[in-house]
Amino acid sequence: MERLPKIRTPLPGPRAAKLIELDKTYVSPSYTRSYPLVAEKGSGVWVEDVDGNAFLDFTAGIAVCSTGHCHPEVVEAIKSQAAKLLHMSGTDFYYTSQIVLAEKLASLAPWNSGKRVYFGNSGAEAVEAAFKLARWYTKRELNLAFFGAFHGRTMGALSLTASKTIQKRHYNPLVPGITHIPYAYCYRCPYNLRYPGCDVACVQWIEDALFRTTMPPEEIAAIFVEPIQGEGGYIVPPPEFHERLYKTAKKYGILYVADEVQSGMGRTGKMFAMEHFGVEPEMMALAKGIASGMPLGALVARSDIMVWEAGSHASTFGGNPVSCQAAMKTIDLLEKGLVKNAQIQGEYLMRGLRELQGEHECMGDVRGKGLMVAVELVKDRETKEPACKWRNEIITAAFKKGLLLLGCGENSIRFCPALMVNSHEIDTCLSIFGEATKEVTG
To answer: Considering the entire predicted model, what is its pTM?
Structure first.
C-alpha cells in the first residue's frame, strides 16, 4: 500500500509547540521558518515530526537530501567512516576519503583539461573560495554577478548575492568591486522584450552598455552565475544565454564561475545543470546535494587556474572524512540511477503542474529542469502582478495537509524533492498542492 501523509494532531502538536517556545528563547531569531514543523526523523521523501505527524517532503532540506532522508547506504557509509576516522583536517594532513573524493569530482567535471578540488563546509564557502581564487589568479579586482542571485551569507558570497535586501541590511560596506546585472528572466524581462525575438539582448547589453560606460572588461576577474537561479525563483534562462555570456567572458579573459550549489549533483536530470547549456565553466561551486545532508562544499576548478600557493586559503573542517565518505556513496547512487530518475520524474512533475495551471488562473508560470521546478503565483495572468500573500498561504495550507514546500523568489513555490521520488509521491504532492491552491485562491 502506497504511503500518504498523516496528520494526527493540530499543527503544531503539543510537543512541537513546547520546543518552538524553547527555540524562541535560545536560538537566533535570524532564521526563517515558513511553518511550525519540528522534525524528528526522516526516510526517503517522508518526514515525521515530534508528535508523530507524517509529511511528504518536497523540500529535501532545501535541495540537500538528494538521495532521500537517511538513505541506508549513505547511513552505513557514514557509520563505517565514523568508526575509523572522524577528523584529521585535510589542510594539514592527508587522508584517503578526501583524496579519493577529489579524484571523483574531477572526473565528473564537464571539461577535458586537468582539474583540482578545494573543500569547505558549505556552498557559501565554495563560493568564497571561487571569489578569492578568481582574484588571486587574474590579479583583477572587479566581478560581475546577477540580480536575483543567491551565493551565500558570508561577506564575500553575500556581496555577490542580490536576492533580498533583508540579507544585506546593516551589513554594509560589503566587498567592493561587484556589479550586478539583470538575469535572463524571460517571464519578467527587465528590458520588456520577448524571447526569442529579443535575440538574448540581456547579454549583448553587457558589451554595448556596461563595458563601454562604467566597467572596464580587462579589470573583471570573473562572472559569477547560477546555471538556473535558485532562491531567486528557479529561473531557467533561454538555451543561448550561457553560451553567449561565456563567449563574452572569453573575449576579455574573464573567468566563468558556475554556482551549482543548488542546481548541481543530478538535481536537473544531469549531474551538473550547466551541461544543459553546453558551457564548460572554469570553476564550479558545489554543496547541498553533494553528501546527502552531511556538511560539505567543494570548488572544482581547472588545474591551470587553481595554482594558488600553500597557505593562501584553507579550512579546518572542510573535506571532513565522514562527509567525504557520504559524498562518495551519494555520487555512486546518483550515477546508478538517481540522476536519470530526476529527469524522468521531473518531466512527470512538470506535466502535472501544467495540467493544474489550466485549472488555476493564479499559476502564472511553471518552469524548471529535472526536479528543480517552480510555480510562479500571480493575481492576474495579463498584468503578472505577484501574488506574494497567496504564495505564503498556499505553502501554509499545504503544510496543514501534510506536504512540505518552500518559496523562492518573491512569489514562487519551489518543488525540489529527493531524487529518488516516485510517480505516486508526485501524484500525492500534486493533489495536495491543487487542494491548497483552490482553498486559498478560490
So the answer is: 0.96
